[in-house]
Amino acid sequence: MREREDEWTGLMRSAISGDSAAYHRLLKAITPVLRAAARRGLARAGQPVDQSEDIVQEILLAVHLKRHTWDVDAPFAPWLFAIARNKLIDALRRRGRRIFVNVDDFAETLPDRSPAEAASPREVAAQLETLPARQREVLQSIAVESASIKDTAQKLSMSEGAVRVALHRALSSLTAKMRES
To answer: Is residue 7 within 8 Å of residue 76, measured between CB atoms?
Structure first.
C-alpha cells in the first residue's frame, strides 16, 4: 500500500510539473480505488451502489480542478481521499438523508507521521521580545488577551487597518524567526 501511495505522489508531482502522461497514469491508477471506496460508502449508507460512477466522476473532476491546491511536499493519498470523502457526503446529502461516513474507510490513507513539535513557551517569549514594540503590543492584545481588532485599535490608538498590518507583520516575522531556529 505504501508503494502505491508513493507512486501516486510521484505521479502527481510529475503531473503538476506538466507531464500529461503521468497525469493520465495517475488518474487511471486511482479510478478503481475511488470506485471501490464510493461503492463501499454507498452500501454502508444503504444506498444503491449503481450511483458510484457519478461520484467517481465528481471526485476526478474535483481533483482536476483543485490539483493546484495540493502541497507537493505532502503525500497525495490523504488529499485525494479527503476530496473523495467530501464528494461521497455531498452525494448522500443530495439524496435527502443525513448520513455519516465512517472516517475509518479512509484511515489507511491518512499520514502516519507525528505532528511537528511546537515551540516551547520560553522560545516563543524570547522571539516576541525581538519584535518592535507596537507589533508586540498588537500580538499580545489579539493573540494572548483575545481582544478584537476593533478593541485593540481603540486601546492602542491605531486604525483597524494599522492593527491588521502590524498583526500580519508580527506573525510573518515570528514565523520566519521560528523557522530559522
So the answer is: no
